[in-house]
Amino acid sequence: MERRFQLKSLNTFSVNAFSKSIVTAHHEHTLLKFWRKAYSKGKPVLILGGGSNILFLENYSGTILLNRIKGIFITENKTEWQLHVGAGEKWDELVVHTIKKNIPGLENLACIPGYVGAAPIQNIGAYGVELSQICEYVDAIDLCSGKKIRFTCSECDFKYRDSIFRNCLEKYAIVSVGLRLRKRWKPILDYHELAHLDKFRITPRQVFNFIYIIRHKKLPDPVLVGNAGSFFKNPIIDIKTARCLFQIYPNMPYYYQKDGRIKLSAGWLIEHCQLKGYVFGEAAIYPKQALVLINRKKIATGTEIAALALYIYNKVADKFNIYLQPEVRLIGNYGEINPKKLFM
Ligand SMILES: Cc1cc2nc3c(=O)[nH]c(=O)nc-3n(C[C@H](O)[C@H](O)[C@H](O)COP(=O)(O)OP(=O)(O)OC[C@H]3O[C@@H](n4cnc5c(N)ncnc54)[C@H](O)[C@@H]3O)c2cc1C
């Protein structure tokens, strides 16, 4: 019988999928070697960090390549700290490391699961800060040529939960990320849950502690309950559509975007379809946060979770005429599945 490898502990949804093989790369040259070896056999390769932004819909027919390239190198000048971080460092450990070293700037991005290499892909963000605000460069290996390329922050084309890497995952392996943190620290407390904090007295460590507490209250711990954080992105719509919606739903929360468009809360939309806590087989909507789908007892299948997501998508579309887009990547037998195939 052909050997297969369990992926349950490699995805935070804890979906019980299998792959043909799993390899771990600790260096750039081994990463490329493993990738080429698997690719030469005509098998697909999926580079993975912590599996906290993916949903396996079925078994994976190729190689899972875990990027564990380590290293945190810190230099400084008069005005800023520059961090060069290996893709295989855990993001939340990096945040704690900087806080302990009295280097502020990452505190709002505390407790985001996953690895540094995945952070630029969807331009991670939380509590009013996005990676794009502190990212100086991203180093990636072009898997076809084997060449290492440095993308400047503007070349990464960061947008809300988006970057150039999001749509060409099979092309690049991110190996390190450069961050630039200003010494002249200003707390970012615009987010409504932080707005009551005293901006003149608060320290980076206090912001970190505060966010740590709210996140642990609000979000399920993947160790106990399978989940991948927010399943859908917050939809961004034009002002004309937004005005029509606000007439019907005057309490609908919204956020102005720099380009004049309006960002809505996907959680609010789902909640107002009366779906909070909705159970679908072994999958469910987290009762404390409607944007989070959960694998309650860690026995739901990927397709069960996807079916729940489709149900939510249709309900929100019917009620608000808004079409949600998944933030989580859907992984099929041969690689990523275009969400349009599922959500039509
Ligand atoms: C409880 C919880 C809370 C969360 N909160 C937030 C939040 O506040 N903000 C936020 O933005 N996200 C959040 N997330 C989502 C997730 O943590 C982030 O998207 C994270 O950056 C994913 O990292 P990862 O290493 O787990 O990526 P993975 O899930 O392993 O990979 C994600 C995608 O990137 C690709 N990939 C991974 N590493 C590389 C690499 N080195 N090179 C090329 N491709 C790669 C994979 O193939 C996959 O397609 C949350 C998730 C959970 C479970």
Description:
The chain is α+β, with helices and mostly antiparallel strands. The protein has 3 domains: 5-67, Uridine Diphospho-n-acetylenolpyruvylglucosamine Reductase, domain 2 (2-Layer Sandwich), CATH 3.30.43.10; 72-217, 2-Layer Sandwich (Uridine Diphospho-n-acetylenolpyruvylglucosamine Reductase, domain 3); 221-342, Uridine Diphospho-n-acetylenolpyruvylglucosamine Reductase, domain 1 (Alpha-Beta Complex), CATH 3.90.78. It is 22% helix and 27% strand. It has 7 helices and 21 strands. The chain has helices spanning 28-40, 91-100, 204-218, 239-248, 266-271, 302-320, 339-342, and strands at 5-6, 18-25, 45-48, 54-56, 60-67, 72-76, 80-86, 125-126, 129-130, 135-142, 148-152, 172-182, 226-230, 236-237, 254-256, 262-264, 279-280, 283-285, 292-295, 329-332, 335-336. The two termini are 38 Å apart. The model has no long low-confidence stretch (mean pLDDT 96). It binds flavin-adenine dinucleotide (FAD). Residues 12, 46-54, 67, 87, 112-115, 117-119, 121-122, 124-126, 169, 172-174, 219, 222, 227-229, 329 line the site of flavin-adenine dinucleotide. Flavin-adenine dinucleotide (FAD) binds next to strand 3, strand 8, strand 12 and strand 13.
Please sum up the structure shown:
This protein is an alpha+beta fold. It is 22% helix and 27% strand. It starts with a strand and ends with a helix.
Contiguous runs where pLDDT drops below 50 for at least 5 residues: none
CATH class identity of the largest domain = Alpha Beta
Nearest-angstrom radius of gyration? 20 Å
Bound molecules: flavin-adenine dinucleotide
Query: So, CATH architecture of the largest domain?
Result: 2-Layer Sandwich
Oligomer: single chain
Cα(first) to Cα(last) distance is: 38 Å
CA-based shape: globular
Number of helices: 7
Structural class: alpha+beta
**Number of folding domains?**
3
Helix content: 10-25%
- What is the spatial order of strands in the main beta sheet? 6-7-12-10-11
**How many beta-strand elements?**
21
H/E element string? EEHEEEEEHEEEEEHEEHEEHEEEHEEH
Strand content: 25-35%
